[in-house]
Prior knowledge:
Radius of gyration: 31 Å
Structural class: alpha/beta
Strand order of the largest sheet: 5-4-3-6-7
Helix content: 40-55%
Low-confidence stretches: none
Oligomer: single chain
Amino acid sequence: MRHDYSTEQFQAFRGEVRESFWGQVRWRTQHLLQQILEADSEQQMAEYLGLARYERREKPEERRDSRNGFYERDYVTPWGSIRLRVRRTRKRSFLPRGVQALERRAPEVAEMIRQAFVRGVSTRAVGRVVALITDEPVSAQTVSRLTRVLDQAVEQFHHAALADEWAYLLLDGVWLKVRRAFGPQRVLLLVAYGVRSDGSRQLLAFTRARAESQACWEAFLWDLHERGLAGQQLRLVISDGCAGLAAAIETIYPRARHQRCWVHKMRNLRDGVRRRDQASVKRDAQRIYLARHAAQARRAFQRFRFHWQAVYPALVRRLERDLPELLTFFDFPQPLWRKLRTTNAIERCFVEVRRRTRPMVVFVNVASVERIIYAIFQKFNQQWQNRALPLFTQAA
Length: 396
């Protein structure tokens, strides 16, 4: 006879068994850890006194100190909160090895709090998440204090040397909100994303800026240059249509080619025409960058101009002005065209930044912005260490 194990009663029973089992494991782990730490405290005191419990010296005048009971101390571990009995004498106490003075929680718990924060959990929600595991609520102020250790790592990231081995450089900016005394304020981050000829990639740098002006971009690119990215191997810089950025590239990396992003350009074309014409304009513009070669792309533009010149003359003039930088990607190996004609690679990173920072609504200060951005970028870089972009590998 076949038994049906899909009933709600069986599922509830299985859940209760699982909860009971892991509850027992957790309780026994807590109890065992408490015994180990307390035994270590007792052992340290016995070594200090030279006497085991209930042992007496033959000559009392040789006694260096005497036992004085214990004091209790709460200590938060990844398996929950435990109450330790810390042995002491009349002159000193004996914390278990691995437990630091004034330390209320294990380093693993502090790291758990930091990791929850950098994964986009708000400071208030982190406390509730950690409390589910450790039975100890954590305040938002504690979370902020524990995440400040990232500041040194952020500073090192900003000043790390860069090897002059990057063939392609993607540049873009992302806006985030920061809470100020007078209300939320938007903060701009300029970001650089590098790709080597073999397809290996890395988020190289980010910095705060007031605007995407030529001066701000020049300062950012000059910092990359000073840190080692001199541009000797740099073949192409890909960016959106920001005029200040284009001028900054010409100043700092004049030998590199410049490719304007087609995604940004298509967005501008769509926004510049009537709704009823958007689909047709998009279709005609796509024929330009989907051409088999540069000559065919220019012919596709001629047809675009013939069709739309009378209706949208200003839009056609802008597209014609930008066309040389929009078609630069045709001068590179054909397998790379799809990757080189847009800034989609860096835009996907921004999608992850927004996804993880959205629960935070706004950042309390600029330092917290840098902490979370650094943590997200480091996670990307670690994931990419052994994962090259396949199209670049094929072209190489």
